[in-house]
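Technical note accompanying the year-one report. For the benefit of new consortium partners, we illustrate the data format agreed upon in the data management plan: each record pairs a sequence with a structure-token string. No post-processing was applied to the example shown here.
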Amino acid sequence: MLLGIITLSRTTGGLFISILGPTLLTLANNVGSSVGEVSFVFSGRSFGGLAGGMVTGYIMRHVNNMLSFGLAHFLLAAVMLLTPLVSDLWVLITFTMVGAVGFGFLDAGMQALILQTWGAKSSQGLIAYYHFTFVIGAFFAPLLAEHYLVDEDNQSICPNNRTNIQPLNITKPMVTQPFLNQTDKVRITTSTPNDNNPIMWAYLIISVFMFVVGVLFLVLGCFGIESRVRSSKTEVVETRKEDKLKDVALLFFLVTSYYFFCVAGESIYNSYIYSATVCSELKFSVTAATGMNTMFWVGFAAGRFCGVVIANYFTPFQIITADLFGVTISMVAVCLFGESVAAITWVVTFLYSFFQGTLYPCGVSWTSQFTNMSGNYIFIFTIGQTVGNIILLPIAGQMFDAHPFSVLNLVLICSVANALSFMGMVAERKYSAK
């Protein structure tokens, strides 16, 4: 039962993260901004995720876990409900940041809960499973958005077609068409599901699902489900003392670097591949671009699923080594030939996401072999991924405005840097063992 609710929670996280990708062009249009400007939403989301991750240890020590997890889902539900109604860029960034606090807390909190309940060794497969369930929500988000975007012309709001964007005028309420031509003044205010807001229903459905999951957490908390599971797993609960920070500082720096590039590359790809295929020389339709975005999550799901299976047969080191080789080679291919040959982009999208799928969970398992990460240090993973998204996703947005397909060059750089970071992690552990 506890594992089931953790699965549902991680699914909401996938929806929260993935829905921004296929709706990015629409959100940019709603707030009257370019893609490069609206990309700071990703920075806001990352700041919020970092804040949520850093307070996880404190909250879990002082507040009932089921209650705090339920309230975090209510926060996410409220943000999802309000996001498509926003007509100002900074309000959109603020809302996303607030919602990401809940997401960051849930992300770190669920991993800590698994490590505390099942222990570092026994939880290796469960950590892989936990990250696999993220893909369930991430997979359905673009399909849900596509249902409401299929009749829209996304290419009309690509960078080369948006030459006369003006700030929103929110002092004179006015609802306009979601996609405007170059001579129109963008002026959009809040709307209802009955207005011509193509993404409103998608966000509303996600909001309701998150609310239901929050209610389930509160109900299970009343029945003491967490205590029951813990009492049956006492023989494997994490009992190691935490190392002193000075003894693992270098390791944590390298782990932070690993997640800086690992998650940033993944986020750039899944956030921009929809818009890149629409606005580049590939000129995909909404349906084809949604298919590409979905292909990413299919590959990601396949990688995560394989990770659950092979975690019992291969070490985290072996899996990570294979993954880094796969993502680097695939990104070289798409950067060289992807914009001119659509088939290569389709294949690489699957391969890149497949290998990327196990980099995050295996990094957690690899690090947990050497030090206790289930307590105060659980936020280390969050810091790396958050700082990477804060810095690199807005840069990707600027690159997109200059040349949409060039964002994939940044993903290639992340893949190479990710490999170098892991080499440093391995070298540090060998040196420390002497």
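Partners are asked to follow this layout when depositing records. Residues 245-279 form the longest helix (35 residues).
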